[in-house]
Amino acid sequence: xxxxxxxxxxxxDLVLETTTGAPLTRPGKPPERIFLADGGRRFYLPxxxxxxxxxxxxxxxxxxxxxxxxxxxxxxxPVDKYAASARWRVYRAxxxxxxxxxxxxxxxxxxxxxxxxxxxxxx
Length: 123
Hints:
- With 123 residues, this protein is mainly beta.
- 11% of the residues lie in helices and 35% in strands.
- The strands form three sheets. Strands 1-5-4-3 form a four-stranded mixed sheet.
- It is globular, with a radius of gyration of 19 Å.
């Protein structure tokens, strides 16, 4: 398994197996959550960060198995303009071509096909 490391303001394209992660407790360490993604990738978050990410996913209505772009975004804090803070940004990723999680396929449209014309092909 590959561990995903987030860099500030760099989106990562992935598909989560669950949107809540799994609780992880290790002796002598604060509680964490592990999130499993496609391709055997995973990442660990402290409980507070994980809760914020789960909230962002819920706000967007993103379900497990959907392709997403996720990044840790820097911003200036409201109290101290010199103290940089971070928050999770989650976006739906454009559909990937090929086989989907539900077994269906997405293929590119043929340029100039009737399916793309609004006049029913009459010219």
